[in-house]
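Hi D.,

Good news: the full-assembly prediction came through. Inputs first.
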Amino acid sequence: MTTHLTAGQRALLEAALVQRQHQLDRRLAEHNEGLSRVEHAREVLQQDVREAAQREEERELDMALSDMEQRELGEVSNALRRLHTDAFGRCTDCDAEIPFDRLKVEPWALRCVACEGRRERDPRQAA
Ligand SMILES: [Zn+2]
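Then the structure:
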């Protein structure tokens, strides 16, 4: 396997990814234990308008958080799948090696700092 990462570094990143995956799994399960959308709608109808509006806001925040966690879980799972391939640790845009120091912070990073920065400056390029 041709990679700039040592087996030890790879093992460390795998442990971090698995830990993050469990954390996200647990958080999403907690969110899902809340009211379903249908139950929530029924509840809103029975409450006075002001309280309902406040609950709606909380609900939207919760949904937004869930969406974020869901997306991150996807990135983490994706990274775990790539971990044992040559593609892991390489920028998907320019094929540069992503330094271990960066992967330590963000093991699911798909791009080098330069490409990530370019995308942030020009969101139209973002896939
Ligand atoms: Zn790059």
